[in-house]
Amino acid sequence: MSADTEECADAPRDGREPLPDPAGALLDVREPLLDVRDLRVTVNGLHAVRGISFEVRAGEALAVVGESGAGKSLTARAVLGLLPAGAEVRGGVRFAGRELLGAGTAGYRGLRGSRLAFVPQDALSVLSPVHTVGEQLALAVRSVRGVGRRASAELAVAALDRVGIPDAARRVRAYPHEFSGGMRQRAVIAMAVINEPELVLADEPTTALDPTTQARILELLTGIRRETGAALVLVTHDLDVVAGHADRVLVMYAGRVAESGPVAEVFAAPRAPYTAGLIASLPRLRRPGGRLPSIGGSPPSLFALPPGCGFAPRCPAATDMCGRSLPEPVTEDGRTVSCHRWRELPSPVTGLFEECAG
Ligand SMILES: Nc1ncnc2c1ncn2[C@@H]1O[C@H](COP(=O)(O)OP(=O)(O)OP(=O)(O)O)[C@@H](O)[C@H]1O
């Protein structure tokens, strides 16, 4: 008997559950694939994510950008249901019509590793050191699709080949420690996309790599996204990555949304002074002989948040009111901004920071 007798020719292609349809009506295809509403994450008493809302549509790439500690990773992990011990989460996370928060691990059944995939910063955190890369890829396929050993092994080779690992048929027999850092991250991407997810969340997927490899891995992710039509949430602190790889951007500051909108519009005319400061500090905007503008100071401690806008102490446009009252996000023309003064500020707002640099 062949090892493939467990394979069922009539099984669904990948054993995925149909979309929930409790009312017996067709799911509204205009509904966002991912809908995050007023997400709040507290870790050991620290209010790290403080009311974040955003949507991701099918096939879209959203970059989540902000300084270290802004709450980017916790936001991504909350969507995936992978928060650290001691974390409490509130709000809504709706994926493909299914509410995930509050549903516990059952809510993620049939989603994680299948329709919802994760690419972490550190490949070794998801690759087992005691199994070959091929075994791990094949297991990922078998646990989701109704395919047998031979077919899953072939899909493992195809997956490594797809992410540009040369001699994939031989490389599948290697262990993760036998791969370079870049190749390991390619293997993790292969693992993430092997079951053709609808949404990939990538948390600074190239942080540990040299600049050339970083660029190649990001090209790979974008290429796969275009090829498969998967949506992408890309956590990064690099605005050049945002410009090159995302359709929309969510700028986070101290656990809140500073601004969000289409990348081209936000870059051309940011509305939040914080976004303007980030853009003004891009090296390519440096004037010949001029200093590189930068945002002075640092984000507030999440243990001692000011009553008003968290950016007010660093903002050249802040008034007394900014220090006193927290600006609520305002959405207009498909863009969201949290700033009391955005309508009255001079355009472009980046000028606030260029002047500061002198
Ligand atoms: N496991 C944890 N225990 C305690 N605090 C945590 C934990 N994970 C994150 N935090 C805190 O929550 C805040 C937000 O963390 P998060 O990792 O989401 O930030 P980030 O924007 O992704 O930063 P970075 O770019 O440095 O990864 C930070 O102040 C961080 O110290």
Can you give a write-up of this model?
By secondary structure, this protein is α/β, with parallel strands linked by helices. It has 12 helices and 12 strands. Among the domains are: 73 residues, no CATH class; 91 residues, no CATH class. Helix 7 links the parallel strand 7 and strand 8. 42% of the residues are buried. Bound molecules: adenosine-5'-triphosphate (ATP). The site of adenosine-5'-triphosphate has 15 residues, from strand 2 and helix 1. One of its GO terms (cellular component) is plasma membrane.
Mean pLDDT: 86
- Report the total helices: 12
Radius of gyration: 22 Å
Note poorly predicted spans.
Answer: 1-27
Helix content: 25-40%
Name some characteristics of this structure.
single chain, 358 residues, alpha/beta, eight-stranded mixed beta sheet, 12 helices, binds adenosine-5'-triphosphate, cell membrane, membrane, ATP hydrolysis activity, ABC_Ni/Peptide_Import
Question: TL;DR?
Answer:
With 358 residues, the chain is α/β, with parallel strands linked by helices. It contains 12 helices and 12 strands.
Please specify the SSE layout and strand pairing.
Elements: E1 34-43, E2 46-56, E3 61-65, H1 72-80, E4 87-95, E5 98-99, H2 104-107, E6 116-119, H3 133-142, H4 149-162, H5 168-171, H6 181-193, E7 199-203, H7 211-228, E8 231-236, H8 239-245, E9 248-253, E10 256-262, H9 263-268, H10 273-280, H11 320-324, E11 330-332, E12 335-337, H12 351-357
Parallel strand pairs: 3-8, 3-9, 6-7, 7-8
Antiparallel strand pairs: 1-2, 1-4, 4-5, 9-10, 10-12, 11-12
Helix pairs in contact: 3-4, 4-6, 6-7, 10-12
Bound molecules: adenosine-5'-triphosphate.
